[in-house]
Amino acid sequence: GINAEYMGERAVRGRASNYIGFCMSGQTPMGHNEVEYPADAQARLGKHGAQVFFMRAYYLSGNSRSGAAEDVEDFKWVPKADLKDHLNPKMWASLEELLLD
User: Of the candidates 6, 34, 38, 41, which lies 20 to 30 Å from 47 by C-alpha distance?
Assistant: First the structure.
């Protein structure tokens, strides 16, 4: 079967391309968040929302380049202290307690 580690790696590679080197530090999620889609997305997708699973990984090298998913407009490296300013409040609340100091 497919495990969470494989799905996490596939998600990174699919969104950011194969130019980012990283190492997953486990096979199970360290947390998750339930996301409710806006009404227009619910109608378009036929789904109420999704579950987002957080996997611990360590950045090794590289960057996202051409070849990233078409719906990725841009990305940025953000210090942990500034993440709150770049995430929606519900996602930040789920993620904040999982981050290491």
Answer: 6
Position 82: which residue type? D
| Cα distances (angstroms) measured from residue 37 to each of 14, 51, 57, 70, 71 | 21, 11, 26, 20, 17
Q: Which residue carries 């609340």 as its tokens?
A: 93
Residues 6+ apart with CB under 8 A from 6: none
pTM comes to: 0.67
Cα–Cα distance for residue pair 67/75, rounded to 1 Å: 13
Residue 46: per-residue pLDDT: 95
Residue 53: pLDDT band (50, 70, 90) is confident
The phi and psi torsions of 16 (rounded to 5 degrees) equal -115, -5
